[in-house]
Amino acid sequence: MTMLTKCVTGIQGFDEISGGGLPQGRPTLVCGSPGCGKTLLGMEFLVRGALEYGEPGVFISFEETEEELKRNFFSTGFDLQGLIDRNKIVIDHVWIDRSEIEETGEYDLDGLFIRLASAIDQIGAKRVVLDTIEALFSGFSNEGILRSELRRLFRWLKDKGLTAIITAERGKDTLSRQGLEEYVADCVILMDHRVVGQISTRRLRIVKYRGSTHGADEYPFLISPTGIWLVPITSLSLNHEASEDRVGTGISALDTMLGGKGYYRGSSILVSGTAGTGKTSLASHFIDSVCSSGERTLFVSFEESPKQIVRNMKSIGINLDHWLENGLLKFHSMRPSQYGLESHLSIIHMAIDEFKPAAVVIDPISSFVAQGPASEVKEMVLRLIDFLKTSSITALCTDLIHGGIALEQTEVGMSSIMDTWLLLRSQECGGERNRTFYIAKSRGMKHSHQIREFRLTDSGVELVDA
Question: If we measure between CA atoms, which residue out of 361, 305, 373, 303 comes closest to residue 336?
Fold first, then answer.
């Protein structure tokens, strides 16, 4: 007995959740509502197959013409005309007029099989996409004929040894409108585009996969400028390495409080405090330290623009402009209300994959709190931290504590996720407002338990001698 062979799709994240790709030589049904990304998934499967795996493909479209498809996918960087010229892809638009379809009992798909076989032979295709199947069967109401022809279509594709994607519109109470295709397909993928609170999120789920284990959860995905971007399953594991290496905090006195060497590389750090206590200043010292060692840092900001942060840090002697010019620092700024939780997770994944930083600063991570229920926020933050740890990226997150919350308490219990926790606070005494902090915890190292006063000076953060 042999294991089921799989066909690598090359689609970011999909091959990980499916355990290696689509079933090779078998048809897969991709169903979902309009605008969820079915046609893109099918076309990207063909384009990446042709470019990265040497497998030519045929795209049979029942709705969009060849010219329309070329224009639509130009924005994703897919040069369909170039692939057609090099015999890597064939696009065939099959126009079906419903008035021409009659249920005579003699109608069958022989004409489609001849046309499809000709296109396959033309380039030696290994992959096929049919988009969408409703157009092909829209004129039929006889379920017997429909079921028979569907089975014949899927069997024909299997006999040809083609790895095929067949797209279908989602039905009211079924995965597809006819409710039949999901039973004859070897693999069924459900795509979804939902809008909650004026924020849209796309998700993908593998509903069925004969002969193979697979991730059964819903996975958020983005339609990025380069195609589909799925959050990989590796972000949900606890098998990351625990490095003995240290990363400086950028403040020598704070390094001393942390065993003399700073944070563990690849660990997670939370800096929490009320507004104006110096959280972003501590984060900027850390950025300065990482960039000084020649490593990259990604700064994800939700409240201030990059120019505003750079200007503000200059006032305390930290020149972030220098690292921007050297390409060691990159800002990724957006409002938290711009996307849903899952989309934020996907976007940060994508930014990290593109920039490949050694450290990430998220300022403040508490911005996610207003984007969903506490349980979903904590789960999303947990997945993000797991992803960063698995990638050996040191993460420093600031956390804005609002009035009414006890000092040693964070929104949705984020402190329990983090390895090191610095608590900042301001105290009014003798007509002065003084900043203090202490290390609430730092896993795996001896650290100071002192409460230390610090000042923001022209030379950055300076700790007052204890």
Answer: 303
Tens digits of pLDDT across the chain (466 residues): 567 899 999 998 899 888 899 999 999 999 998 889 999 999 999 999 999 999 999 999 998 999 999 999 988 889 999 999 999 999 999 887 666 555 555 556 788 889 999 999 999 999 999 998 887 777 666 777 777 888 888 899 999 999 999 999 887 777 776 666 777 788 999 999 887 766 677 889 999 998 887 777 788 888 888 889 887 655 556 777 888 999 999 999 999 999 988 999 999 999 999 888 999 999 999 999 999 999 999 999 999 999 999 999 999 999 999 999 999 999 999 988 888 787 888 889 889 989 999 999 999 998 888 777 787 788 788 888 988 998 999 999 999 887 655 556 666 578 888 999 999 988 877 778 889 999 999 999 999 999 999 999 999 999 998 7
In this structure, the strands spanning 452-457 and 263-264 are unpaired
Rounded to an integer, what distance in angstroms lies between the CA atom of residue 228 and that of residue 352? 16
Strands 6-7 and 27-32: unpaired
**Residue appearing with tokens 């219990």:** 413
Cα–Cα distance, 175 to 30 (Å, whole number): 9
Measured CA to CA, the distance from residue 27 to residue 7 in angstroms comes to 11
Residue with tokens 């202490």, as numbered in its chain:
438
Contact present, 127 and 164 (Cβ < 8 Å):
yes
Instruction: Output the CA angle 150-151-156, nearest 5 degrees.
Output: 100
Cβ contact 250:53 at 8 Å: no
Which residue's entry shows tokens 């915890």?
A: 441
Amino acid at 299: F
Q: Per the confidence metrics, is the pTM higher than 0.85?
A: no
Query: What is the C-alpha to C-alpha distance for residues 378 and 233, in angstroms, rounded to an integer?
Result: 17
Place of tokens 């204890």: 466
Instruction: Give 236's Cβ-side CA count (13 Å radius).
Output: 12
| Strand 219-224 relative to strand 227-230, pairing | antiparallel
Q: How far apart are CA 197 and CA 219, in angstroms?
A: 19
Q: State the DSSP code for 225.
A: T
Q: What is the DSSP letter of 173?
A: S
Query: Sheet harboring 199-209: ordered strands across?
Result: 89-93, 57-61, 127-131, 163-169, 27-32, 187-196, 199-209, 219-224, 227-230
CA count, 13 A, side-chain hemisphere, 143: 5
